[in-house]
Specification:
The protein is mainly alpha-helical. The chain has one domain (6-29, 70-381). It is 58% helix and 9% strand. The chain contains 14 helices and 7 strands. Strand 4 and strand 5 (159-162) form a beta hairpin. The protein is globular and about 60 Å long. The protein starts with 5 loop residues before the first helix and ends in a 12-residue tail after the last helix. Bound molecules: zinc ion (ZN). Zinc ion (ZN) binds at residues 116, 226, 230, 256, 261, 264.
Length: 391
């Protein structure tokens, strides 16, 4: 541990404190050897593929483990691998906007129940940590799968078209009610077990599988793009800290004001779009991950509110502006981002229609689980401890 930085040592202490509180967790960075890591994780990257050990994943994970590159012994190598990949992509996208990019801080995860990431000040230093909810990327993957199997599509002359009408969505759901089950299982697994993967596993194929991949990628890139935007825009230096008490653990969280949050959302969207353009697969789902992030976050917040208070009134976020206001402001920025060219205007219109269709789908899914949530509240079901961190 001697070669760890002060930030990494502090992150490890926070993780140790969080996990100690009745939270069992493997210690990855010490005796958890590479054979176990590969056995546990590699298949989950590409289960459906015949190639069970894709070389790229293998090499990257091996590099992280061989070089003691995990920031702490508690950091899950698979989650860290995803985080590093996302940061690398976002930084490449940011290089096209600015040549003088700030240094990446130490990044890691905590079971914080804070679906927005947190910037945490390292004591006695000017450094800070960027800490992500430790299940956020798993949740992103699974919510993208649920939504992807809810969007009607047809293939004509080898061209795929997705339907954007409410009536088409309603008809599609009539013959495809499995998405409601998947949604309920996912939300229940995250809320009550703290692990989205506690929901039964399933695989998508064909068009919905590709659609889920695009939605997940853009959603994940937006989450990291938003946090990185706070750094590029110099918000961290400008902002105050607030002493936070999660369970019995105290730390200084950097609190951004609403204007800073909105501008990090807009720049985060631009950075995400830059990445998606680089990947070369430009279609509407590539753009709407940011919108889906807010829609899903809203679902989590409303669910927690019902389970804590018996109503959806208490959904104002602890540190960020209201989620749906962020979504509204982001949608307003779409026209400006795509510009005034004929193609730009057409694209912006398509993106907004697509986003509204996703919103409609999420609303239908939400309506389908509310009776269960109210009943769970009445029966006194207990939320996973991560959702009670900041009470
Ligand atoms: Zn933020």
């Amino acid at each position: 541990m001697s070669n760890k930085t002060a930030s990494e040592i502090y992150l490890e202490k926070l993780q140790s404190d969080f996990y100690e509180d009745g939270y069992t967790h493997k210690i990855y960075g010490t005796d958890y050897n590479i054979k176990n890591i590969l056995k546990d994780y590699i298949p989950t990257f590409n289960k459906k593929s015949k190639n069970i050990y894709p070389e790229e994943c293998f090499n990257k994970l091996k590099e992280i483990l061989d070089n003691d590159n995990l920031p702490t012994v508690y950091e899950d190598p698979a989650q860290y691998y995803i985080l590093l990949n996302l940061f690398e992509k976002i930084e490449m996208s940011a290089e096209e906007i600015s040549s003088n990019l700030p240094r990446r801080p130490v990044v890691g995860t905590l079971p914080s129940g804070e679906v927005n990431a947190m910037a945490i000040k390292v004591p006695d230093s000017d450094d800070f940590l960027l800490v992500f909810e430790d299940q956020i990327f798993t949740f992103a993957n699974l919510i993208a799968k649920v939504v992807a199997q809810s969007i009607p599509f047809e293939i004509k002359d080898n061209v795929i078209s997705f339907s954007m009408g409410k009536e088409e969505v309603n008809n599609y759901f009539k013959n495809n009610s499995i998405a409601f089950e998947r949604f309920k299982e996912l939300i229940y697994a995250y809320l009550f077990y703290g692990e989205p993967t506690a929901a039964p596993q399933y695989f998508l194929e064909g068009i919905p599988m590709h659609l889920a991949d695009r939605l997940r990628t853009s959603l994940e890139l937006f989450i990291v793009g938003h946090e990185y935007s706070h750094i590029i825009l110099g918000h961290v230096q400008e902002s105050k800290t607030m002493v936070n008490k999660a369970k019995r653990i105290e730390f200084n969280e950097i609190i951004f004001n609403w204007d800073q949050e909105f501008s990090a959302d807009v720049l985060g969207l631009r950075l995400m779009l830059g990445c998606m353009l680089k990947e070369g697969s430009i279609n509407l789902p590539s753009f709407v991950g940011a919108d889906l992030f807010f829609g899903s976050l809203d679902v989590i917040e409303k669910s927690i509110s019902i389970l804590k208070t018996g109503s959806v009134t208490n959904t104002i976020h602890r540190t960020h502006p209201p989620t749906l206001l962020r979504r509204e402001i982001l949608r307003k920025s779409i026209n400006e981002i795509f510009g005034n060219s004929k193609d730009g205007i057409k694209m912006a219109k398509g993106v907004l229609m697509y986003a509204e269709t996703l919103e409609y789908i999420l609303n239908l899914l939400w309506d389908s689980i509310t009776p269960f949530l109210y009943s769970a509240y009445k029966k006194g079901y207990k939320l996973d401890s991560r959702w009670l961190c900041f009470l």
